[in-house]
Amino acid sequence: MSSETQTPRRGAVAFIFVTVLLDMLAFGIIIPVLPKLVEQFQHGDTAAAARSYGLFGMAWAAMQFIFSPLLGAMSDRYGRRPVILLSCFGLGLDYLFMTIAPSLGWLFVGRVISGITSASFSMANAYIADVTPPDQRAGYYGMLGAAFGIGFVAGPALGGLLGHYDPRWPFALAGVLALANACYGLFVLPESLPRERRTPRFSWARANPVGALHLLRRSPQLQALAGVYFLFQFAHYVLPSTAILYASYRYGWNARELGLMMAATGVCSIIVQALLVKPVVARVGERATLLIGLLFASCGFAGYGLAGSGAQFMMMVPVFALAGFVGPGLQALMTRTVSGQEQGLLQGANASMMGIAGLMAPGFFTQLFAYAIADGWQAPGAPLLAAAGFTALAALIAWRAARPNAALLQPAA
Fold first, then answer.
1. What PANTHER family does UniProt report for this protein, alphabetically (predicted)?
2. What are 38-77's pLDDT values in tens digits?
């Protein structure tokens, strides 16, 4: 292992933390206003807006599926820095483009571009793998998760405040933040992948979803861990897909109560990622951390689905927050199974799997919710219980895949 990965470069890691924070802040800012802007273009027709917004989400996930492996392969060949900066500049310009989009069609184009250029989070994971030794990665991935959570909590609050005056203002602020971060990165972000550790040539055979996903079949261990990643991501989509509808239907919550629930979820997630991941990994290891996270995820989903009152639902928020152990533990284990020349491709493949989950899971969970509240079968918690089942299956797979004697779970060169 090169000396570059022995001691994390604090300035570079700090920039990556800020990049994820600002990108998630920018992403979160538009969450409360994008549906309203779509509704404006549909002349107040909420049903038509809902159909259009669903297509927006599918298009974004499809672009992630197609282009994430390309950007990952580019980062393995040309370095992480240009891809991260390209993503930041691309997102910034795209948000400004959506600020002035004159029609629904142009707004859709902007969302497609956003899906293409949204590589900063996956490239941040590859960057951390480059500059940290394997036994410290889970802790740093936890810090990235905390940045993700901070942005996701603060962004919607800020977006809702600005969107009260004009639904386009949050897009403008998101664009300014992304561009400012990109300009800052031009001066302070060093390259993490030295030339001698890059792939010798760019290969289109690897830089596509099929080629990237083929990487995940390299060994039984990596294939199984990829299955865990997909199942967890698929299950997690139950929350953005149905949580608001579920809480409104079952508990009669209004916008204020829903906002408080989202804020509490974000705060608990930040606490877990920022304060608990690193010491827990140091004490019990990456495998146990992953299994603990999946156990609490399954219990949390089940608790949400069975909660008979809003108070019981809120009691499960800190329980589910411990699912924050999953990402850092799983990412650390997966990065051990590939070489330093393939970290970008690995993250691109993971992003592609997230894109597949994003295409499939929302439709599955929303249709299950609709069926579960139909006449004759009042079981609104069914989607959340299904998610609990998916994460329990993931835990069983992880228990076998991440066994301590698994030969490939060793630091990659």
1. MAJOR FACILITATOR SUPERFAMILY (MFS) PROFILE DOMAIN-CONTAINING PROTEIN (PTHR23504:SF15), MAJOR FACILITATOR SUPERFAMILY DOMAIN-CONTAINING PROTEIN 10 (PTHR23504)
2. 878 888 776 677 677 778 878 888 888 888 888 888 888 8
Question: Taken in order 73, 77, 78, 79, is the CA torsion positive or negative?
Answer: positive
How far apart CA 140 and CA 133 sit, in angstroms, is 10
* Cα 90 from Cα 111, distance rounded (Å): 12
pLDDT tens, 329-356?
Answer: 999 899 988 887 788 888 888 888 888 8
Domain 1-187 shares a fold with domain 209-413: yes
**What interhelical angle do 120-131 and 137-163 show, nearest 10?**
150
CATH architecture of the domain with range 209-413:
Up-down Bundle (1.20)
Sequence-ordered alpha helix ranges (H) in 103-219: 104-117, 120-131, 137-163, 169-188, 209-215
Question: How far are the Cα atoms of 6, 70, 130, 140, 413 from residue 3, in angstroms, in the given order?
Answer: 5, 28, 11, 18, 12
Tokens in use for 63? 């672009």
Tokens of 262: 């989202």
Token pair recorded at residue 20: 């994820």
Question: At a CB cut-off of 8 Å and minimum separation 6, what does 134 contact?
Answer: 332, 335, 336, 411, 412
Written as six digits, the tokens of 228 are 């865990």
339, 333, 307: which is closest to 225 by C-alpha? 333
**Whose CA is closest to 24, among 133, 170, 174?**
174
- Burial pattern 345-378, b for ≥16 Cβ within 10 A else e, equals bbbbbbbbbbbbbbbebbebbbebbeebbeeeee
Q: Contact 233/354 with Cβ under 8 angstroms?
A: yes
CA distance 254 to 244: 10
Domain range annotation of the chain = 1-187, 209-413
Q: Hey, is 102 helix, strand or coil?
A: coil
CATH class of the region 1-187: mainly alpha
CA atoms of 155 and 149, how far apart (whole Å)? 10
> In this structure, what token pair is assigned to residue 348?
């691109």
Q: pTM surpassing 0.85?
A: no
Of 113, 322, 314, 350, whose CA–CA distance to 213 is shortest? 350
Cα of 411 vs its chain's centroid, Å: 24
Phi, psi of 412 (to 5 degrees): -80, 155
Tens digit of pLDDT for each residue in 273-322? 889 999 999 999 999 999 999 999 999 999 999 999 999 999 999 999 99
DSSP characters for 303-340? HHHH--SHHHHHHTHHHHHGGGGHHHHHHHHHHTTS-G
DSSP string of 338-406, one letter each residue: S-GGGHHHHHHHHHHHHHHHHHHHHHHHHHHHHHHTSTT---TTHHHHHHHHHHHHHHHHHHHHT-TT-
